[in-house]
Amino acid sequence: MRKLTLITAIALAVGLFQACSGNKSSSTTDSVVTKTDSSKTTTVKTDTAMAANPDSVFVRKAAVGGMAEVALAKLALTKTSSTKIKEFANMMITDHGKANDELKSIAKTKNVMLPADVDAEHQKKMDDLSAKSGSDFDKAYVSAMVDGHKKTLDLMKDEAMNGKDADFKGFAAKTAPVVQMHLDAINRIKDNM
């Protein structure tokens, strides 16, 4: 069973790689990945069009964004002396932690692999914030949270309206109001700085 899961993951990765390789054709041809170990050969067939569907893009972006929100919130708890920012960071850890778990659960039932870590863009943001302290950190963190929550809200609204998978659409529709609440909260903090 683990071999089948590994082979499926490899096949999906190949499909995603092909979809992201810059080839703009709208082909929906299948790709075949063959894995051979010492005892047997297994062939897995994947539809490359499915690998490039909007729901998979949503899932990847939502997973990376959720992980980044929790990591940045944990960083904020160590860097800020502001009670309001600490309260906001704790809310991020709780709310995004729950959303991350729910997304993982949905993805697991659909055999969708989630990224294991944040992407280069979010890692750079974490590195930049790690180098700051005091009010410079507070301003940069609040600014990053405003920008990030605006993008996440747009992502959730778009999936809720245009997604193809009912479970991912439902997740997005349920999560969008929470993201809006976060955006409102961080904007209040920004306005009072």
Tally of helical runs = 7
Biggest sheet details = 2 strands, antiparallel
| Alpha-carbon distance between the two ends | 54 Å
Shape: globular
Order of helices and strands: HEEHHHHHH
CATH class of the largest domain: Mainly Alpha
Strand content: 5-15%
**Low-pLDDT ranges:** 1-52
Radius of gyration: 19 Å
Query: What name goes with the CATH superfamily of the largest domain?
Result: Ferritin, core subunit, four-helix bundle
Sheet with the most strands: spatial strand order: 1-2
How many distinct domains?
2
Structural class by secondary-structure content: mainly alpha
CATH A-level architecture of the largest domain: Up-down Bundle
Stated plainly, the CATH topology of the largest domain is called: Ferritin
The multimeric state of the shown protein is single chain
Mean pLDDT: 79
Helix proportion: over 70%
Number of extended strands? 2
Top keywords for this entry?
193 residues; mainly alpha; Ferritin; 2 domains; two-stranded antiparallel sheet; 7 helices; disordered N terminus
Notes on the protein architecture:
73% of the residues lie in helices and 7% in strands. It has 193 residues and is mostly helical. The protein folds into two domains: 2-51, no CATH class; 54-191, Up-down Bundle (Ferritin). The chain has a two-stranded antiparallel sheet with strand order 1-2. Strand 1 (30-36) and strand 2 form a beta hairpin. Helix 3 (54-79) packs antiparallel against helix 4 (83-109) and helix 6 (134-162) packs antiparallel against helix 7 (166-191). The longest helix is centred in the C-terminal third of the chain and has 29 residues, at 134-162. Mean pLDDT is 79; it is low at 1-52.
